[in-house]
Amino acid sequence: MTLKGLVLRERSYGENDKFLDILTDKAGLIEVSAKGVKKPNSKNASVSQCFCYAEYCLNDSGGRYSLNSAEPIRMFYDLSRDIERFALANYFAEMLLYIATQEAPNNEVMRLALNSLHFLSLGNREPLALKSIFELRLLSEIGLIPNLIGCCECLKYSAQQMQFDLKAGRLYCEDCFGSRDLHDVEVVDARLLHYIRYIALTDMKKLFNLIIQREYLVPLNNITERYAELQLDRRFSTLDFFKSVMIG
Ligand SMILES: [Zn+2]
């Protein structure tokens, strides 16, 4: 069988072989055995590395896949030259591995992953901007989109300040918030709310056109990161590593 896929993880076994976890267009996340690819003269050496996007020709014996050959489409090698960007790419990969185990093939998730790696490797976008976009959009694409229509009680669309309940995934205006527990709530001003709506709702074609003002990068990241953590009920070790190498 032939499918397009992005390698999210590689694990060595034996002297010359690897297991690859590949996010694919037709089969979702699959594990592929890649024999002999650690040999220096292997024709499949380059397509058996993390962050390679290629058309893979696989043998399928009852759901156990082995690599036959592959045609590279895009290699995101240059990511490994910058520790901060490489760390962020690994966080994206860990999140994708986590959600893809429960998901059928999802083209929008694949597009999000490829676009995020594309802009990350180009180096012309703030890593924190890409992180916020990836976190919130990924959750939105897998059915965990917050209700952003307006205040969930009175439907007011915008206000100077609104409260974003990260656990319930909904907004309250100041009139309706009352005396709720503030633990999982972030206050968002009109601009933050605009960014959140844009990331969750805009067409994928326009998603990466979003320009986030510098002073909003950290507050927006705080929200998207907590939202992802609360909704997935999981903390990713690659996120801690990214924070330890993050510049600025
Ligand atoms: Zn209200």
Largest sheet: 5 strands, mixed, barrel
Number of helices: 8
Mean pLDDT: 94
- State the domain count: 2
Order of helices and strands: EEEEEHHHEEEHEHHHH
Specify the CATH architecture of the largest domain: Up-down Bundle
Q: Which ligands appear in the coordinates?
A: zinc ion
Overall spatial form: elongated
CATH class of the largest domain: Mainly Alpha
Number of separate strands: 9
Strand order of the largest sheet: 1-2-3-5-4
Write the layout of secondary structure elements.
Layout: E1 2-13, E2 17-24, E3 28-34, E4 52-61, E5 64-75, H1 83-100, H2 107-122, H3 127-141, E6 147-151, E7 161-165, E8 170-173, H4 174-177, E9 185-189, H5 190-201, H6 204-207, H7 214-232, H8 237-245
Parallel strand pairs: 3-5, 6-8
Antiparallel strand pairs: 1-2, 1-4, 2-3, 4-5, 7-8, 7-9
This protein binds zinc ion.
Zinc ion binds at residues 151, 153-154, 156, 173, 175-176.
